[in-house]
Design goal:
Arc Repressor Mutant, subunit A, ArsR family transcriptional regulator, 56% helix, single chain, three-stranded antiparallel sheet, alpha+beta, 3 strands
C-alpha cells in the first residue's frame, strides 16, 4: 500500500496504529500473537517477554486502542488476540505475519 492509499483513512486512527507499531515491545507482542492461531493470556505473554504486569498492560492498552488487538476478559484473566479486521483494513496482515 502506498502512502496515497492511506489518505482515505482517518488520521487519528493512523496515528494510533503507527504509534503502536513504533515500539519494539509491541512489535514483539504482535510477533508472538501472529505465530499463534488462538488467543493468549496476558500473563503468558508477559512471562515470554519477561515483563511486569503493569508494563505489559500498558503495551496491551496501546495495541487495543489502535485496534490491532482484541482483549477478552474471563474472570480475573485477560486473553489477547490479533484483530484481523483492522489488519486487513489497513493492509497490515503481511507486515504482522512477517515480523
Amino acid at each position: 500500500m502506498t502512502i496515497e492509499q492511506y489518505s482515505n483513512y482517518n488520521d487519528e486512527d493512523l496515528i494510533k496504529i503507527f504509534k503502536a507499531l513504533a515500539d519494539p515491545v509491541r512489535l514483539n507482542i504482535l510477533r508472538i500473537l501472529s505465530k499463534r492461531e488462538s488467543e493468549l493470556g496476558c500473563g503468558e505473554i508477559g512471562e515470554l517477554l519477561n515483563m511486569s504486569k503493569s508494563a505489559v498492560s500498558y503495551h496491551f492498552k496501546t495495541l487495543r486502542e489502535a485496534g490491532l488487538t482484541i482483549t477478552r476478559k474471563a474472570g480475573q484473566n485477560k486473553f489477547v488476540r490479533l484483530n484481523h479486521d483492522t489488519l486487513e483494513k489497513y493492509s497490515l496482515t503481511n507486515l504482522i505475519n512477517n515480523l
